[in-house]
Every structure is written in C-alpha cells, then in structure tokens.
Amino acid sequence: MSQSERFSISFLKAKRRNMFLSVTPGFEHGPGIKRDGITPPRMNDPHSIPFVCSPRSLMHDINLPATTDAYIQRAGTWTLYQHLKEFNNYLGKKWQIIGVQSCGDLTMNPWHLAYVRNSYIRNQQINLCCLLSEDESREPFSSRIYRCIVKWDSKVLKYSKRRFEALDLTFHSVPGPGGVSIVIEDTHRRQDYSSWLNKLQGYDSITHDIAPFIDFALAGKPLVINSEELSLSNAIDRFQDVRHIFNLPTVRASGAYKGQPVHEVNFGEYQLFRNLNERRAALSSAVIVDLSIGDHIRVSWKDLESKLRERHFKPVVDSPTRRGQFRKYSDDTRQDKAEIFFPHNVYPFGVLGLHEDELVCLASGGLSGRVGNTLEGISRIMFDFFGCDDAMVLDEGYDTFQIINPLAAGLYKYTNDELIARILSFTKEISDDEQKKSLDTTVNYKYQGGLKLWPLNKSLFEEIEQDFNKSGQCDYSDVLSVRPHRSQMRSVLIFAVPQDKNISNSEFKQENPTDNDVSQK
Is the CB of residue 267 less than 8 Å from the CB of residue 249? Predict the structure, then answer.
C-alpha cells in the first residue's frame, strides 16, 4: 500500500516593483504564541484581548482561558480575501497585484517587528507592529537591534538610489511616530549616510530619526546579512519553536506541568528551548537529555527507544557521532538519560530576500516534520542560488504560502478584480472546511456554532458569503503557487506594479511551483 502527498516550492523575483505590508487591524500588537517546551503552544484567546475587541465594538471576556486551538487563535484575523480586497479598494486603481507572500510570524513571535509610517488600511493608525502585550512575551524592542528590509519613501529616491535596503535599526518610542535610527559601525559608511540624510528637509541630525523618510521597515529571522551567510548557530537563537530546526520525536509522557496533565512531549524540546548553548551544541554534536523533564514529568526509556526506532534513529553503543544516532546514557546521578544526535527537521518556510534593489521571495511548502526544507537548505537557496545580500525568514509551518498573478505573453493574466475573485473562491472553500473541523475541535468552547459564528469572526465570514454569492465560483488553480493551509492570516506582503505599465518577462521573473509527489510505503 502506498501513500502520496504533494508539496510545492515557488519563488518570485521583482525588480523595481513595490511591496506593501497588510496587518489585520486590531492585531498590530499581538496576542502572540506562548511556549514552555512542554505543553502545546498556546495564545490568549483574542476574544479576551481589549485592543482586539474594542475597535470592533465587542466586549472582551477576561475569563476565557489561553487556547491551543489553531482556529480560536485566529479569531478576528482577516482572511486572505480581506487583505486583498482592502488593498484593491484603496490602491487598486494605481497598482496591479502581481503576488502575495505570507508574513505569518509578525506580531505572533519575538524578534518579528515592523514599523509602518502610514498605513493605507482604513482607520488603522499604527506605527510599531510587534508583541506589545503586557506579559512575559512582550517584545523588548527598545533594547534590541533589528535587521530590517526598509522601504524608503519616494522623496528619498533622489538621494538614495535604492527603494529597498537592508539596515540595522533601533526603535525608541511607542505609541506614536518617530524614534527609528540607523546603526552603522563603519565610520566611512556612516558618514556617507549622514551626507545625504542631512539634505532631507526635516531630518534631525541630533536624533538621527529616519522615521519620516520610510514607508515601512520589516524585521524577521536573519539568514544572510551584508552578503555574509549566518552560521546556523548564530541564526537559531531567534527560533523559539525548536521543532523547526531539529527532528524531535513525540513520545508518551506522564505527569503534570503547572497543574496541567501532560500525556506526550516532543522529546528534547524542553532542554533545547530553555538553553541556547545546548541548542547550538545540538547543531553539530549529540546532546544528553534527561528522561525526567522538569520536576514532575517522566518519559520511559522503553517508550523513547521504541519511538526513536520508529522514526529511523539508529542505536549505537558509544557516543553518537552521526545525525540520527542515539544511546541510553548513565552517569553518577543514576538518573536515566538519552544521548541523541538530533537530525535537522524539515518544514515549510517563507523567506524574503534582497539582492541589490531586487526583492526575492521564496515559499517552500511541505509536510511539517516529514517533507520540506531544512533551515540550512533555505539558507543555501537564498545565499548560493539567488545571491541575496540579505535574507530573513518571515514564517514557518502552515502559515507559509505564495500567490502569483501568472504571466501570459509578457503581461499579467488577471486584473485585480479577477485575481481577487479567485482568492475569494479559495477562501470560501477552505473556510467551509475549517468550519466543519472547528465544530469538532471546539466542542467545549464558550462560543458555539463553529468559527464562522464566533463574535470576532462573524462579520468577516458574512462578508465572504455575500461577496461569493455575487461573484460565483472561479478556478484558482493557477494562482496558488504554494497553497495556503489556512483561510486566516494575520499579516501578508503584497507585491504590485503600476497599473499603466506593461511588464515584460525581462523585468519580472516568477517560477511556477514545482509539484513533488512523495510516496511512502
């Protein structure tokens, strides 16, 4: 008996094109994913967050517990259709959409940040987008330096030859505008920037604030900086979810963590999540992992060994020297431990890069933990194949997707309305499926009736039903380069060209998805 699955890889290269950032209103500051390395990732229910509910004239419920359900975590988040419809309503007469890329970690995970000077989204008055919730997950933005892809304002172009540029930035104030500074260690390069920045009307040479002169700045997890590929040991400190780096077996466990029963764990996650030095060491050598996790959780060696063999790990007598090897380890403490050389894991990744003034967008799909690309593989593609001067990961897992407007005879195949109608059909189809699944996963949830009826979602899906009834079904098969696995996405990047400009193949390149059939016995 065989099983077949399909995954896609797609890239989009756009020179002298424009990029826009769309963030769901009300979610500019979180809530974000919380991890402890033991229990499943959780998030405060959006229905319990004042800054999410208030703009929608809804009362927040502080008694709702944090949730691990992916559907509840996305309550109130725009669908792909709403992101594109909003863009078309306000900018569609001037700009033709040529592609859409996921930006799923923004305001969901640490180190992801965006500064937006002027949002085109109606009633959205924000500047800094990042985790600003009042708890331990709050982003310490004022003490960090962020590697950002900056989109300069058009008035800067006569001084700076690049519309897009990668820079180290610091951010100083929130809420309100201002407080964005360039960090440049090289004296001569700093003088070069000062020479033309001082020519800009309104530039303050004392504060060095560049906020008035950028459209937006976007930070993710860097892979390439200043034409130098980062070693994995210097890149993984920003990956909170260590499963995206290492192949960690899920194994039965017994016990409780903070009063919550624990029945299984991703073995090794707790240690690698909590200890950056061990995470770095695991990239190139075996690490010793306790079978006792925390104070009250236990994994049996029998269960672990069985799961490791099932996952094709190989037992050895001496210390493991190759990825995928393991052995039982004992020391003077007489506590059972395992010594494992964890293989690198495969995951979907969404990446944004910059080669001179050319944007490079890569979406690598897959089956999380089974088929896809490794972090090292993604770095190889962006650095070796595309020659990116800078590259950063924007999301991983099921958030990853890419939409393209296909080229036909050197012109884009679909108008904005035609492309959006296809995204509407896809959104309707996938959200109908999510509605059915949510009825099963949220049986004990306060709000019944499935995700389409939840207070934060109701108006979003009513809009989809109404618009779909007017437009009808469209074939969307040729626009989904890497198929989205979810209808709702907190943030996306939209790529566009001027409506009155014909684009030839020599100026724009897109690669149709490569579909790979993966068969398993």
Answer: yes
End-to-end Cα distance, the chain: 6
401 Cβ contact list (under 8 Å, min separation 6): 100, 101, 102, 350, 363, 365, 480, 482, 483, 484, 485, 489
Identify which of 420, 423, 486, 494 has the alpha carbon closest to the alpha carbon of residue 75. 486
Query: What confidence score (pLDDT) does residue 159 get?
Result: 83
SS3 content of the chain, % helix, strand, coil (to 5): 25, 30, 45
Calpha distance 57→47 (Å, rounded): 12
CA proximity to 100, closest of 410, 423, 377, 364: 423
Q: Strands (DSSP E) along 43-125, which ranges?
A: 95-102, 113-116
Token pair listed for 24: 């769901």
Residue 337 near residue 329, CB atoms below 8 Å: yes
Q: Count the neighbouring beta carbons within 10 Å of the beta carbon of residue 201.
A: 7
Among the ranges given (56-60, 300-304, 305-309, 509-513), the one the predictor scored with the smallest mean pLDDT: 509-513
Report d(CA 461, CA 453) in Å as an integer. Answer: 8
Residues 393/349, Cβ–Cβ less than 8 Å: yes
Buried (b) or exposed (e) across 445-484, using 16+ Cβ within 10 A? bebeebbbebbbbbebbeebeebbeeeeebebeebbbbbb
Among 266, 222, 268, 520, CA closest to 371: 520
Strand, helix or coil for residue 503: coil
* CB atoms inside a 10 Å sphere around CB 301: 12
Indicate if the pLDDT at residue 160 is higher than 90.
Answer: no
CA dihedral (185, 189, 192, 197) positive or negative: negative
Name, in order, each residue with C-beta under 8 angstroms of 122's C-beta and a sequence gap of 6 or more.
86, 90
| 42-77-123 Cα angle (round to 5) | 130
HEC letters along 355-374: ECCEEEEEEECCECCCECEC
* The token pair that represents 500 in the structure block: 């009155």
DSSP class of 101: E
Q: Of 25-29, 386-390, 514-518, which gets the smallest average pLDDT?
A: 514-518
359 vs 105: CA distance, rounded Å: 19
pTM: 0.91
Rounded to whole angstroms, the Cα distance separating 371 from 3 reads: 13
Regarding predicted confidence, which is higher, 433 or 336? Answer: 433
What distance in Å separates the CA atoms of residue 67 and residue 80, rounded to the nearest whole number? 23
Q: Which class for 184: exposed (0-12), middle (13-18), buried (19 or more C-beta within 10 A)?
A: middle
Spatial CB neighbours of 16, under 8 Å, sequence gap ≥ 6: 163, 357, 507
Exposed e or buried b per residue across 138-174, where buried means at least 16 C-beta atoms within 10 angstroms of its C-beta: ebebeeeebbbbbbbbeebeeebeebbbbbbbbbeeb
SS3 230: coil
Sheet of strand 146-152, all strands in order from the earlier edge strand to the far edge: 128-129, 113-116, 214-219, 146-152, 164-171, 180-182
Q: Name the H helices within 21-146.
A: 50-53, 70-73, 80-91
